[in-house]
Amino acid sequence: MGSNTDSVVVDKSAQSNGSAISRCTLLREQIFSPDLAFLMEAHNGISAKIAEEVGFKGLWASGLTISASLGLRDSNEASWTQVLDVLEYMADATTLPILVDGDTGYGNFNNVRRLVKKLCDTHIAGVCIEDKLFPKTNSFIGERQPLADIDEFCGRIKAGKDSQTDDDFVLVARVEALISGHTMEEALERAEAYHAAGADAILIHSKKSTANEILEFTRRWANRAPLVIVPTMYSMNTPTQAFRDAGISTIIWANHNMRSAISAMRETSRQIFEDQSLHEVEGRVIPVKEIFRLVGNAELEAAERRYLPGKANLSAVVLAASGGNLGEMTENKPKCMIDIRGQSLLQRLVTSLSDGGVRGISVVRGAFKDAVQVPGIETVDNDRFAETGELFSLACAKDKLKGDLVVSYGDVLFRDYIFDGLMQAEGDIVIVADAKPRQGGDLVVTDKPYTGGYLDDGPVSLTSMSQALSADKATGEWIGLARFTAQGSEWLRAEIAAIEAEGLLETADLPLLFTRLAAKHPVGVHYITSHWLDVDTLTDVAAARNFT
Ligand code: SPV
Ligand code: MG
Questions:
Q1: Nearest partner of 21 among 3, 7, 35, judged by Cα
Q2: Does 314 lie in the same domain as 227?
């Protein structure tokens, strides 16, 4: 790659007259660099972002895959302005230079003029036009597709170069002679004519399964202008080093993001269709929060803090005061600090909460409090942890029980989608309950059992919660995770005060708290089925290690 471009800051809107380097310049530098450059196929904003994130320094906006993403054939069924709309999303989504597959230029010289002008306006770095006729057909379909007249195609090239508004805009002329069954001489003659007409680089295309004709062309071309290749058909038989050694300028990986997306989408659709459930698929696909990250929600959050004063911040109180009963593992640290594959349980929980948008995380410590160390948390101490219960620990963090709030036990792990679901659930107080209660857990009784179709059945409310209940009487088990709005937090503080006034604060547990809250206010229940665990036994520790 053009290593001289690595440290350059690109102004997304920069053109040749701007102060920052333009994307046209970046593409030009890559194509003219002695190092082999790579352009990765993208067909929309998200695929462009993904290619940029993994490290590609340039993109190929493929005609085939943009058409396919619209459900269309690679036969100019999408109008050029519809393609331009897609390109604008791609350019906005990244800072990378984009070489656009301009097919045949969408018509004659006049269409190419307008195309190039609009591409420059859209901050696209270059265009590749091929020497065929509008409407085009994909090169891998059929044999002996008719080629354009050489002089007429040279007119398209000249018109394009004369219309660019950035001096470094790159026009690549694509020679289809070999694909269409013509001779090597014809291919060389066309390349020479296109170069003389002003093309910055030549794309020599082949659909053979070996690179022989491409390497022969490259030898005979003798570096008169940079050569671009699309080794879709022949790369399996040719190491990339061979292209580097031959002096090729740029390789286009032309369609692999679209092809892999189709494989993945087909697999997911089939599984959900067969199962009539998301269960199998949920752990395999990226979490929803990864979509948020990719599209830059963090930037929006920061902007909201800046421009929307008073926007509530989500905070969390994590109860981690109990010591635990796990032999050697909890000999000198509380169970929240047990190592689960190189990270403490608490660290994993804190990461989940942070990823879910929680900003201030307060951890109530008790047993082995000095061992409770996780970067970025605040700590609150319950120094009477030995003779008090959970509610007393929560009350130690009284000052933190305000605004949008999450309360969690310190020994739970859950998949991100569970937290996302809790955040989206309606209600001022919402708890997460597993629909399959286990004897001895924080068992809940609700006004409606889980049906699997509860979203259609409307909200579910908590009636009561208790550890003493028989599991067959329960409709779920609280997993140790709850959410409060500012109103909910106010009710929470009031209920803690009431319990304290009755002299029950030291002995009360959270099930009592939620039962009392549910008697006065609606407490919503967000049902889940598995994909979480808490750690009470050595078996739980083993499960936690497999969970991550
Ligand atoms: C495209 O990606 O649309 C191309 C490359 O033009 S190819 O499909 O190889 O013709
Ligand atoms: Mg194409």
A1: 7
A2: no
Q: CB atoms < 10 A from the CB of 292, how many?
A: 17
pLDDT single digits (tens) 394-438: 999 999 999 999 999 999 999 988 988 898 888 999 999 999 999
Q: Which atom of ligand 1 is nearest to the CA of 41?
A: 2
Find out whether the beta carbon of 255 lies less than 6 Å from any atom of ligand 1.
yes
Give a yes or no: residue 8 inside a domain: no
Print the domain residue range for 438: 288-547
> Is any atom of ligand 1 closer than 6 Å to the C-beta of 25?
no
Domain count, the chain: 2
pTM greater than the 0.70 cutoff: no
> Is the pLDDT higher at 541 or at 519?
519
Q: Is the pLDDT of residue 17 over 70?
A: no
User: What is the CATH classification number for the domain harbouring 95?
Assistant: 3.20.20.60
C-beta atoms surrounding 458 within 10 Å: 9
**Among 313, 490, 480, CA closest to 404:** 313
What is the Cα–Cα distance from 422 to 525, expressed in whole angstroms? 9
Predicted pLDDT at 14: 45
For 322, other C-beta atoms within 10 Å of its C-beta total 22
In whole angstroms, what is the distance from residue 297 CA to residue 353 CA? Answer: 16
d(C-alpha 546, C-alpha 548), whole Å: 6
Nearest alpha carbon, ligand 1 atom 5: 254
CB 386 within 8 A of CB 368: no
Q: What is the pLDDT of residues 90-104, one digit of tens each?
A: 999 999 999 999 999
Does 426 reside within a domain? yes
Helix, strand, coil % over all residues of the chain, rounded to 5? 40, 20, 40
Q: Which atom of ligand 1 is closest in space to residue 130's alpha carbon?
A: 6
In the residue annotation, 74 being an active-site residue is answered as: yes
Beta pairing class for 343-344 and 339-340: antiparallel
CB-count burial class (<10 Å; 0-12, 13-18, 19+) for 380:
buried
The per-residue pLDDT for 455 is: 52
Per-residue pLDDT tens digits for 21-63? 999 999 999 999 999 999 999 999 999 999 999 999 999 999 9
pLDDT digits (tens, 9 = 90+) for 379-392: 999 999 999 999 99
Answer yes or no: do 181 and 295 share one domain.
no
12 in any annotated domain: no
463 pLDDT exceeds 60?
A: yes
**Atom of ligand 1 lying closest to residue 205 CA:** 9
Candidate from 43, 67, 74, 140 with most ligand 1 atoms within 8 A of CB, to mutate: 74
CATH number of the domain that 392 lies in? 3.90.550.10
